[in-house]
Amino acid sequence: MFENQPKGLWALALANTGERFGYYTMLAVFLLYLQANFGFQTGVASTIYSTFLMMVYFLPIIGGIAADKFGFGKMVTTGIFIMFIGYLVLSLPLGKDSVAIAAMGISLILIALGTGLFKGNLQVMVGRLYDEPQFASNRDSGFSLFYMAINIGAMFAPTAAIKIMKWAQMSLGVSEADSYHFAFAVACASLILSIAIYYAFSSTYKHVLANETKAKSDNPAAKAEVKELSQAETKERIVCLCLVFAVVIFFWMAFHQNGNTLTLFARDFTQKTSEGLQSMAFDVTNLVACIFVVYGSFALAQSKTGKGKGIAFGVILAAIAFLFYKYTTLDSHVDIEAPIFQQFNPCYVVALTPVSVALFSWLNKKGKEPTSPEKIGLGMLVAALGFVWMAVCSMGLELPLTQGNAATEGARVSANVLISTYLILTFAELLLSPIGISFVSKVAPPKYAGLMMGLWFGATAIGNQLVMVPGIMWGMNFNLVTIWGVLAGICLVSALFIFSIIKKLNKVS
What is the pTM of this model? Predict the structure, then answer.
């Protein structure tokens, strides 16, 4: 999957990795911060959380329109600087009064606006790398690699947030509420790294920006290079994309419960300690070692030289030896912090991306690879399965508000419930998210590329606003089985809708 990829992919992916690391470090603890610092009730905190997510994914529509007019490169760099200011304001410990709440609101708006200018336009630039004929066949695998890089940043974010908060509390003597600001400050540092990478390796993607400038000129020959579609073809593609966007809304409503009800479930319904082999899963270095085993195994199988196979075998042995050492030096138990569960999804994405690419490559050779729309439909089915599993595992548990009261707390479930749920939801994400982005970059009419990518994020934004619905249900003391059942049902209906229009979608893909 690493072969025949444009060099610019790695530069843009690494720039995105730095930005996403900061974003997910902040997001891992944001809901808990709202309750710890301001004392907001679950419903209020959930609404603020989901509204912020909505803005983060809605504003790329504005960013796409601006990029179509002013250029993708300019919007990407402008977005990074605006985000930096937002994270800087959020990292200031301003207290709990109305001024602090107002400052938080301003910082969230700046972060969302900056992300809107940065995120979608960077992905359009990645898509443009694959407009060249020699790379066109690797578009899906390229976006899978880009998506994997995003999750490398996200993978370390929960651990970074927890560690820096504990360091601030233990070494600097700050309160728990104020220690959250140190986690937010990590995002500022990560953006500095991101912009440094973006500029340092600009030579690998500068032709994309040059072609963009050329296409905006009055040179008829330059304009002829852009494939023109008929009005009917343009309309058909836009309609099909909008139908996919409608389904994407409900996927993100369900999936982004990872920072909302799934985090609340981790805090209130999951065992607070872990021991033995299971406890190793809560150390991110052990997960990284497992990822090395996966990649080493692929390298061992695919390497064409004895030296390559030897290096791959050495990597596998070193990773296994590291895991064995960590197992022999385990503590009797480890404490589990609720945000740490958010590391599993990105770890799974990084580990399973080569598996996904290899599987679909094998199916492609046999002529049986699902189309992009079919993968999206399958992703919705798998997401439904994840919440069915949560519903089954939640049977017999207390109501949320009863469990939230230490005096009436009931049974807690094994951490394996959430670990396995995140695995199922990751399979769904790999089928839908990178493939969906690739589908948009391929199907979007050239003159509306920025707008269509913006609308992809706009659909995600609506889904993120709807993230609050299960949170409000939680605050209203709905039964857990009902909450998870609603999410499973929404995903199932969305999957059925996709398959009902699959012929129409396949025609344009």
Answer: 0.79
